[in-house]
Amino acid sequence: MEKVKLPIRRLVEFLLRFGDIDSRYVEKDRMLEGAKAHRSIQKANTIDCADYKSEVSLSAEIEYREIVYVIDGRADGIFMQDGIPVIDEIKTTATPLHLIGEDHNIKHWAQAECYAYLYASCNNFGKAAVQITYCSLDTGETKRFFKVFDADELKTFLYGLLEKYAIWAYHTSEWAKIRDASIKALSFPFPAFRKGQRNLAVYTYKAISGGKKLFAQAPTGTGKTISTLFPAVKALGEGKAAKIFYLTAKTITRQAAEEAFYRMRQHSLKFKTLTITAKDKICFCAETLCYPETCEYAKGHYDRINGALLDAITNCDDFNRAVVEEYAKKHRVCPFELSLDISLWADSIICDYNYVFDPRVYLRRFFAEGRDDYVFIVDEAHNLVDRAREMFSAELSKSRFLEIKKTFKGTGKPFKKALTAVNKCFLALKAACGELEHCISNDLPEELLTSLTKFAGLCDALLKENRELGTDNTFLSGYFEALNFLNIAELFNEMYVTFTEKRSGDVTIKLFCLDPSFLLGEAFKRGCSAILFSATLTPLGYFRDILSGGDTDTLVAIDTPFKSANLCVLFAGHISTRFKNRDQSISHVAELAGCFISCKKGNYIVYFPSYKYMHDVFVEFRAKYPEIHAFEQEASMTEDAREAFLDFFKEDPEQTMAAFCVLGGIFSEGIDLKGTRLIGAVIVGVGLPQLSVQQNIIKDYFMRKNGMGYEYAYMYPGMNKVLQAAGRVIRSESDRGAVLLIDERFTHAAYKNLFPSHWQHCKTIRDVKKLEAVLKEFWGLF
Length: 782
Ligand code: SF4
Fold this sequence. Notes:
Layout: E1 3-7, H1 8-15, H2 31-48, E2 53-64, E3 67-81, E4 84-93, H3 106-122, E5 127-136, E6 142-150, H4 151-185, H5 197-209, E7 213-217, H6 224-237, E8 243-248, H7 254-266, E9 273-275, H8 279-282, H9 301-315, E10 318-319, H10 321-331, H11 335-343, E11 348-352, H12 354-357, H13 364-367, E12 374-378, H14 384-391, E13 394-397, H15 398-407, H16 413-432, E14 438-441, H17 446-465, H18 473-489, E15 496-503, E16 506-513, H19 517-524, E17 529-534, H20 540-546, E18 554-557, E19 567-572, H21 582-598, E20 603-608, H22 611-624, E21 629-632, H23 639-647, E22 657-662, E23 680-684, H24 693-706, H25 709-726, E24 737-742, H26 749-752, E25 763-764, H27 768-779
Parallel strand pairs: 1-3, 4-5, 7-17, 7-18, 8-11, 8-12, 9-10, 9-11, 12-17, 19-24, 19-25, 20-22, 20-23, 21-22, 23-24
Antiparallel strand pairs: 2-3, 3-4, 5-6, 13-16, 14-15, 15-16
Helix pairs in contact: 1-3, 3-4, 4-6, 5-6, 6-7, 9-10, 10-11, 15-16, 15-18, 16-17, 17-18, 21-22, 21-27, 24-25
The structure holds iron/sulfur cluster.
Iron/sulfur cluster (SF4) binds at residues 21, 279, 283-285, 288-290, 295, 297-298, 334, 336.
């Protein structure tokens, strides 16, 4: 008989929802404060009642209508009273307690009644009681409700829920049979493995089977997506994984995963996949205001959502954005919420990194209940370092609170007092910097946190009293930023600093995560295995260290599947592009780039470490080479402007074209200009991040940690940009192209050691004559 895993919380929340989406009334994310309050109530109960047991895991296998439900959950507390067990369900809340009655939330009772049934039936009690304890997040006060139930009454209630859930469980179990049979029969969806592909697939499969992480550097052309997804699907079919999360840093790379699944489906795979699109992108309304008065999809959403969901999952397997939108329109439900619901039925979820790692938005429906057999496939994993630092850091500025104070002058004394207290903390932190523009502390700004907690509590109360405040951007931004800051403060450890900066008349305080490895490691523990890959994970040891790998995790560098001879790599080590030497280098760089580009007609990109340097060389270049169609990247470009920029790169152009771009910018990675759309790249400098106070804090931290401060803060991130930019040139087996690296540091062993193995044939050039001769030979122009 099929078994269906069913956490009680999910069962109750899924079946008992109704009404509108109304983001003004949602209890905001005060989870960490909530967890603290939770623990303190449990502790107090343990003192008051000797047999009070906290966090009691409950589970049972219940057979009902030919399905075995593996039901589980965790009661907050259980104790005995008058000979019967009492299930204590603790709920922290921002709602003032006087507004909470016995029927405040039927789901709270439902969840506890299910726990009560499990406990009573396993321990042969004819009766059990439920106590709901509400605890105010702001005052710490509690309010309790108590009811006694017969065991039969509890049984009838739980079985009633299972009856309603039967159609969903049946779908789950039937689908698993169909899916697993198709996976068994699935063969690799290409005629043969390319060079390196089989290796990557085998390493992936082994990592998943062994519950480990794999760090794989796999060059362009390896077919990384299919080489990781195919073995992951196979592992899922063998019961080694429950769900595959394909995580990307950019929207564009999600397509590769969708295409890989499409291809496997063409080979008869039955697999449900979902792409999660960000809420503000998929929203049907001009403004994402999720209230029944402003959005027709929010109104009655929960009354229609289960019908929409059932229709979707019984009739479709591939939930890309367009399909999600189609079902949402058909049933008049919110497309974003629908996609989150579909995710529970999807075998694979394609989404941004933040749905797994970001403490603000990670998918609680999967990860709040502890570990499961999830596999995380992290695409372009080199991006995760900076993204993780951002996700685990939080910043507040003084001006935000002054703006709120000005806008909400008449909101009442306590609110004004709270804002004044926050402002005072900013001023104290500013004063602590003395004459300096910034200062760093290894401690949390405790007084600021206390003031922010008060401020957030008052915001909660005001929102309850005045629903219109929930639509005010100034108010909401300040409130959310404060909550986020408080939540990130809970993660603060020795890998953080508090960074105070005076910035154009303002003061900002940042809880700055310098080393994301520990927190990433905690997030990865939500799954059973992780595959992190990129064309540029150099050096692998650095990425393993900073992305939370351990000694038992596997590092692998896959060889390029392309002929090395198709890429001509040259470096000009006689020019220094260091900041202090830039002015003198302008004409030399323009001349070298001009010579490189003039050798063969085609499309080229010249990459620079800054817009200023780029523009200076551009002006010189255009004057010297008017016959070449040269143009520059702009500092901020819309989606349309980016596309128009890339449209200039035509196959076999009639005129030579040189695009001047910034290293590490939007045109230095993630663009795929195959064939003759791009035949050469000039990379000026070693890509070091701009010298800055924050980068230096990272440097000092790693210097203390492992003596590799400069490498971790500057050299490795810089070379990553260089390797990414160089990787734009050869995109397929038949591509031929050239890369010219300009900087004396490329001659240093420390940098050369970071060159990929397929650059072994690179040549040094010391003047334009030599450059011309080598290129002519490469292009066969003699
Ligand atoms: S459609 Fe947009 S505004 Fe409406 S509920 Fe969904 S996200 Fe909110």
